[in-house]
Structures are given as C-alpha cells and as structure tokens.
C-alpha cells in the first residue's frame, strides 16, 4: 500500500495535480466509475503509450507510470478517495498536455525564426473538449480526428511507422562499401551491390526479391533513380558522393526528421485561409491551393528560387498579398547597391546604361548619367539606384507584393535557366517563380476582367503599373524537409539548419519537463 501511495504521489507531483482539486463534493471524476477506472481511462493510457506514433515522447506524459497505476486500479487495488482523485487528476493533466502538444506543437515557432500570425479565433478549450469526448465515450475517435487535422499528417504518420520499423534492419548494420572511384556509373561493378540492393528494397525503391546484379544495371539503376528523386538529388542513376551520403543516413535519423516535420505542421498555418500560396523553402516549390470542406485542393505547383543558404536566407512568415506590379521597376536594395552594384559601376562605367539602370534622388528626380558624386550619394543613402522595366530587369515582368518587414516578394526572373538546377538557393532573399502567368491567373481568378491576354499585355508593356487586389490572398513561406506526394515520402536537405534548431529547442523543452 505504501508503494501504491508513492506512485500516486509521483503522478500528482509530476503533473502539478493536487489530490484535493477534485475531492468529493467538487467536480466528479472523469476516469472512474465508482472505484474502478473506466474503459475510457484504459484508452487514454494506451493513447499516451503510443504517443511515438505521432512523433511525440510517451515519457513526457508519464505514460508508463499512469499505465501501471490504472492497471492496478482496474485489477482491484483499494483506493482512498484522495488516491482516486489524485490518479484521476494526473491522467486528466497528462491527456491535456498531450492534446495541447498534438494540436499546437511543443515549441513556439518564433524560437526557430518562423513568424506566423496567431489565428483570429480563440484557442479551443482543451479541458472542455476532453471532458466531452470522454463523456460521449468517443475519446479514441476524437483524438484520431485531432491528429489528422494537419495537412500530410496521415502519410507522414505512415512514413514514421515505416522508418521506425527499419531502425534495427540488417541493411543498416554495416556501412556500404567504399566506391571504387569517385563515382559508380551504370554498367560498373561494385562490391557493395548486395547491401545496396537490400537497402533499396527495405526503403521500397526496389521490389522485394529482385536478384542482386553483377553490375550496377537494370532494375537496380531504376531503383537508385527513384531513391535520388525522393532525396532531392539529380535522378541520373549514378552512385556518387551525394547519393552515398543520403543512402548512409540511418532510419533512426529519418524518423527524427519526420517527427520534426510533424511538429512544424502543428503550428504552420496551412489552413488559415480559403485560398493560399505556400512556398516550401527546402523543396524549392510553390503550391497554390484552395481549402474546401477542410481539404486542401492544390491548383498549381511550380519551381521557385529562394535565398542563398550562406548569407541571404528567405525568412519564414505569413502575410496577405495585396498588390501585383506589372512591368516593375527594381529598386536595388541598399545592401546590394553597396556590395555589388556600386563596385560594378566603378569598375565598368557602361554598366549603368547596359543594365537599364538609373539614379533616383531624394526628391524623385531621375538621373541617367554616371558620376563619382552620384555613387557617393547612393552609398550615403541619399540616392537610390533602380532598374527600368524591360527584359533585363532583375524582377522579370511581374512582382507579387505582400507587404512585410523583410521586403520579401514573389517575382519573375530574366534568368529562367536556374530553374533547371536541383538546388535553387540563388536569390538575395526574395522568391523567383517559374510560372508567373499561371500564378497571376490563380491570384486573379475571381476577377473576370483580368484574362490571360490582359495579364500578358501588362507584363510586356514596359510601363510600370500596380494593381490592388480586390481580395487579399494569404502567402505562407514555410519549411518542411519531408513531404508526402502521391503515396511516396520525399526528403530534402536542411537548407538553412532550421531542423537542427528545432531539434535543439525540443531537447530543451524535454529537459524542462524532467521531474
């Protein structure tokens, strides 16, 4: 009996519960019928024990302790009213903690440089939600529905289970053999082919039972190309250093990467508006979609170019797109003017005219001649440099404006060849879009006056004009290194190190929970 009371004391102290909080005469117990835990209590501890299925840690919710306590109480262990109240309160608090983590995430996105607007509607009352689910005897169904609210949640949970099952798989018990040269091309022999074959089979890129070939050829090359495509690599069927690096990432690391993505999805506002434009930075992809009956219907997908990982990273935030600028001027940002444009002009005075650039004074006067004092005025901040509309303009012929503190926007580009690269972090922070006309049509789809022909004419006019949108459109700059597409899971490099920051924040969060 002493050991039992110690267990109850541990549960109440860890969760901050007070046995007196629900003594008889106050609110009735949630998890007990007379002196025995209910079926809903049994379900609750099973939900907590399987928190890892959601990328969460059962230990954070005292799942093992609560399971032992509920099991003993169900087996007939005698409980005083205070014991029962303490266990009831502990289980309630653990479930509320779990539900908060499941629906809202464990850390503030601001900790990892993601500035997202707070939803306009008030947070759901988790305590009331839990009481209703238990009393209607639909706890498991309600929790399942809550877990599936985040887009991609279902396929990512499935992927998490698949990679967790591979953690002790024989295909990762030893490393792949070193390559015979810098890379292994199709048709070449390689001592590591048996292990490579088994690893690709375990990952689902190669059909089970496929025989090991004598050389890198046939089905194995096709499987390697599928693997490369799923890991953000050029799918050329060549086994080189980058592909080897991805092949040698252990399933345990992939499970953490998936769990980090699930965490991000809990607080990334992917459903906050009926129509949205979302850029996933590590994937270098933009998607435009509509939310109908709680489901996301993707209307448009295209490649993008984002900020350089080294020094001009694209920030993560959400804002309302309010304007489209056709045939825009490019006002050279002061930092770019200082570091790049002014040095170019000093080295090559013809650069100003060749690039269709001009100076703009503080009063708005336009000056098209180059002089040392003009450059000094730019460096002092009194003047600015801008590039006229036309085929050389760095913004291309259209700019999508969603006012923000970082002056980030979407725009076209006169250098479309960069979209053919697999890694596309080349910009100074703004986002270049591959198909600007298609994006403009999506943005303006509810305005019949703006046909494709009119959009193209405005883009080609070389006369800058700004259109205020009748209905603002949400733009979200997000960061997911794991994406589920068409029944397959894709992994992308942690371009800006945000996954690493999130993992550290979660470790600090976990340490703060330790009793």
Can you lay out the helices and strands and say which pair or pack?
Blueprint: H1 2-15, E1 32-33, E2 36-37, H2 39-49, H3 63-74, H4 81-104, E3 114-115, H5 126-135, H6 139-147, H7 153-165, H8 193-203, H9 219-230, H10 241-247, H11 251-267, E4 275-280, E5 285-292, E6 295-307, E7 316-326, E8 330-331, H12 334-347, H13 351-354, E9 357-360, E10 366-367, H14 372-380, E11 384-387, E12 398-401, E13 410-411, E14 425-427, E15 431-433, H15 436-443, H16 452-460, E16 465-478, E17 482-485, E18 488-491, H17 498-513
Parallel strand pairs: 3-7, 4-16, 6-14, 13-15
Antiparallel strand pairs: 1-2, 4-5, 5-6, 6-15, 7-12, 7-16, 8-11, 9-10, 9-11, 12-13, 17-18
Helix pairs in contact: 1-4, 2-3, 2-4, 3-4, 7-11, 12-14
Structure write-up:
With 515 residues, this protein is an alpha+beta fold. The chain has three domains: 2-154, no CATH class; 170-249, Muramoyl-pentapeptide Carboxypeptidase, domain 1 (Orthogonal Bundle); 269-491, L,D-transpeptidase catalytic domain-like (Beta Barrel), CATH 2.40.440.10. Helix content is 39%, strand content 17%. The protein has 17 helices and 18 strands. The protein has helices at residues 2-15, 39-49, 63-74, 81-104, 126-135, 139-147, 153-165, 193-203, 219-230, 241-247, 251-267, 334-347, 351-354, 372-380, 436-443, 452-460, 498-513; strands at 32-33, 36-37, 114-115, 275-280, 285-292, 295-307, 316-326, 330-331, 357-360, 366-367, 384-387, 398-401, 410-411, 425-427, 431-433, 465-478, 482-485, 488-491. The strands form four sheets. The chain has an eight-stranded mixed beta barrel. The protein has a four-stranded antiparallel beta sheet with strand order 8-11-9-10. A hairpin with a 4-residue loop joins β4 (275-280) and β5. The longest helix has 24 residues, at 81-104.
């Amino acid at each position: 009996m002493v050991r039992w009371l110690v267990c109850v004391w541990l549960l109440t102290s860890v969760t901050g519960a007070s046995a007196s909080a629900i003594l008889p005469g106050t609110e009735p117990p949630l998890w007990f019928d007379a002196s025995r835990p209910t079926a809903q209590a049994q379900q609750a501890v099973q939900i907590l024990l399987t928190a890892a299925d959601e990328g969460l840690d059962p230990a954070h919710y005292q799942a093992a302790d609560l399971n032992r306590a509920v099991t003993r109480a169900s087996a007939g262990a005698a409980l005083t009213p205070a014991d029962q109240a303490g266990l009831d309160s502990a289980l309630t608090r653990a479930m509320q903690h779990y539900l908060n983590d499941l629906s809202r995430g464990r850390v503030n996105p601001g900790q990892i440089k993601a500035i997202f607007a707070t939803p306009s509607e008030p947070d759901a009352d988790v305590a009331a939600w839990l009481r209703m689910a238990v009393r209607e005897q639909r706890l498991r169904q309600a929790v399942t529905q809550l877990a599936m609210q985040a887009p991609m949640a279902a396929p990512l949970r499935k992927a998490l289970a698949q990679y967790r099952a591979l953690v002790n798989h024989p295909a990762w018990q030893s490393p792949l053999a070193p390559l015979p040269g810098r890379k292994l091309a199709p048709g070449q022999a390689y001592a590591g082919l048996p292990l490579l074959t088994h690893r690709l089979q375990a990952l689902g890129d190669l059909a089970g039972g496929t025989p090991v070939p004598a050389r890198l050829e046939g089905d194995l090359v096709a499987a390697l190309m599928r693997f490369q495509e799923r890991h953000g690599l050029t799918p050329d069927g060549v086994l080189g250093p980058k592909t080897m690096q991805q092949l040698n990432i252990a399933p345990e690391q992939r499970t953490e990467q998936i769990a980090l993505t699930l965490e991000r999805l809990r607080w990334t506002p992917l459903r906050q508006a009926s129509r949205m434009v979302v850029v996933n930075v590590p994937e270098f992809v933009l998607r435009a979609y509509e939310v109908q009956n709680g489901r996301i219907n993707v209307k448009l997908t295209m490649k993008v170019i984002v900020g350089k990982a080294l020094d001009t990273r694209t920030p993560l935030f959400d804002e309302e797109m309010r304007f489209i600028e056709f045939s825009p001027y490019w006002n050279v940002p002061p930092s770019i003017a200082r570091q790049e444009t002014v040095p170019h002009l000093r080295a090559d005075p013809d650069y100003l005219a060749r690039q269709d650039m001009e100076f703009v004074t503080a009063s708005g006067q336009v000056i098209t001649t180059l002089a040392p004092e003009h450059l000094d005025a730019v460096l002092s901040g009194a003047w600015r440099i801008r590039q006229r509309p036309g085929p050389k303009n760095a913004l291309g012929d259209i700019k999508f404006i969603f006012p923000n503190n970082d002056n980030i926007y979407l725009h076209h580009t006169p250098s479309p060849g960069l979209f053919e690269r697999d890694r596309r972090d080349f910009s100074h922070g703004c986002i270049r879009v591959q198909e600007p006309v298609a994006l403009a049509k999506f943005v303006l789809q509810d305005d019949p006056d703006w046909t494709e022909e009119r959009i193209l004419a405005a883009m080609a006019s070389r006369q800058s004009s700004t259109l205020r949108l009748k209905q603002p459109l949400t733009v979200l700059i997000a960061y997911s290194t794991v994406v589920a597409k068409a029944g397959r899971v894709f992994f992308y490099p942690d371009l800006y190190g945000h996954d690493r920051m999130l993992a550290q924040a979660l470790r600090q969060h976990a340490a703060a929970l330790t009793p």
